[in-house]
């Protein structure tokens, strides 16, 4: 048996209402917030930095994701058939959510390198390198989104609705490499950055205040990332397990959990603009959103540690 039936119309209608309740404010807030973010990062900031490059790419990904949400809502509510329009919207959706995840991961890595290895950061980091990495990711994800249907054994009847219970191993690949590995990287980099910043707390009230704000920003970014994306990808893993074991009795629950958790994941379009706008506002001088004074001290400490000990200090 390749298909299971989902016949609880009351529950399905309730989920559709929940999606509508969530997506209306997401679209209402997300569109103006992303427009403001574009204006800030494209026009207001004077210097091109790594974070500025990442943020512009993140805003592009979030904007395309916002564009696909009304179609996703309509397609799932009215059982829209799989056609060319469906394929286009599905490719946009399945390109831009992974791109948002990967860009947030790149921002976390960039912060880690800048604060942990300030001397090597000048070699490892540059706006051109950041743009090249983003360009490579865009090309790779776009190609994968077009090739993804080829890995499916059969075409689904309705858009954004997987009715067959044939395990989709390309989806498992996407879940692991598209989220859980980036999740581990984001957690590691964020924790290391927070530890490093706490060690730099000084007696200076001004520097201490800047460091505490930086710690708060990194912590909030990490929490938003985990809270938004983890439930959705766990729900996808649940659906994969249902398909592998052909557990038709759990299909409805798995499908509903995916739809509900996707609402939480897609709300990240709004939260990105909030998080990184305030980060840029607090630390406009430093490309990775950390105080310049901390980096100078790190460079001094590292340069002192690299010098051999001498009996006299040359001035």
What does this structure look like?
The protein has 315 residues and is mainly alpha-helical. It has one domain (9-285): Rhopdopsin 7-helix transmembrane proteins (Up-down Bundle), CATH 1.20.1070.10. The protein has ten helices and no strands. Helix 1 runs parallel beside helix 9 (268-282), helix 2 packs antiparallel against helix 3 (84-116) and helix 3 (84-116) runs antiparallel to helix 5. The longest helix has 41 residues, at 205-245. The N and C termini lie far apart (82 Å). 35% of the residues are buried. Residues 282-294 and 301-315 have low confidence and may be disordered.
Termini separation comes to 82 Å
Tell me the domain tally: 1
Specify the overall morphology.
Answer: elongated
For the secondary structure, the number of strands is: 0
What summary fits the major beta sheet?
A: none
- Taking all Cα atoms into account, the compactness measure Rg is 23 Å
CATH superfamily: Rhodopsin 7-helix transmembrane proteins
Would you tell me the overall average pLDDT? Answer: 81
Written as H for each helix and E for each strand, in order along the chain, the element string is HHHHHHHHHH
Q: Under the CATH scheme, which architecture would be assigned?
A: Up-down Bundle
Which class best fits the helix and strand makeup? mainly alpha
Percentage of β-strand residues? under 5%
The CATH topology assignment is: Rhopdopsin 7-helix transmembrane proteins
